[in-house]
Amino acid sequence: MSFSPATFLEDLLRVVRQPLLDIGVVLYGMASVVWFKVIATENLSTSYPLVVAMTFLLVSSGCALWFREVISLQKIVGMVLILLGIIVVSSS
């Protein structure tokens, strides 16, 4: 996408017409509704750390699966510690 004034609108329309963008916007909206429901019914001190930890784990796993990124032993140990933290936080 170019940010030149001459082609900006045309480039923006081309991006908006992408079906994956539409899917992403819908999924983001659905995730927002779920998150609003969670923070309305659960303690923020419990739910927020869980969401952050799960986001880190899912992004790291997704990068390894889809982009073939190498996950080092240090990262695996870190993810195990995060999982243990999730268990401790969610059980309290």
Structure explained in plain terms:
The chain is mainly α. The chain has two domains: 1-41; 43-92. It contains four helices and no strands. The radius of gyration is 19 Å and the shape is flat. The protein starts with 7 loop residues before the first helix and ends with a helix. 0% of the residues are buried. The model has no long low-confidence stretch (mean pLDDT 89).
What separation lies between the terminal Cα atoms?
48 Å
Order of helices and strands: HHHH
Q: Into how many domains do the coordinates divide?
A: 2
Indicate the radius of gyration in whole angstroms. Answer: 19 Å
Shape category: flat
Summarize this structure as a short list of keywords or feature phrases.
92 residues, mainly alpha, 2 domains
Ordered list of secondary-structure elements with their pairings:
Elements lengths: L7 H9 L2 H23 L2 H23 L6 H19 L1
What's the gist of this structure?
The protein has four helices and no strands. With 92 residues, it is mainly α. The chain has two domains: 41 residues; 50 residues.
